[in-house]
Please model this.
Amino acid sequence: MSDTGCPPEIQAILEASGLGFEVVECDPADAETAVFAEKYGYALEDSANCLLVKTKTGAEKFAACVVLATTRLDVNKRVKKLLGARKVSFAGADEARAMTGMELGGVTPLGLPDGLPLWIDARVMARPRVVLGGGNRHSKIVVAPAIFDFVPNVEVFEELAIPLG
Model:
């Protein structure tokens, strides 16, 4: 663990980017997006969730998806088509931990395993800043979406997510 509260490999990505960033420490009980945003004074419109999805049929494939907290990932249409599968689902906590080394509620799109596709909804890229998981349940990262220029395997998609409401 670094002195910033996020894992060293994630801190290295942030520092190498040259972008300004802030690591916000939080109570692990407050790691869920809506709870964190309300308790620590961040807008849901700036909060982004990193979700791990997988195929349920055919060859096993995974992808990480980043969507704003004001949207929901379009798993049944968009993700299914992108993965080329008849059925897809969210990876379970054990699968997410095994694949990323991170706990649900703290998964960050920074420092994911090589070869894991990282799909980002275009709405995320339109924000001036985003609040991401810190790689653990006791920190969040506030940074410009330009951070994704420094992350491998990134593809940005229009309408990867559907607005809530």
Observations:
- Residues 8-158 form a domain with the YbaK protein fold (CATH 3.90.960.10).
- The longest helix spans residues 8-17.
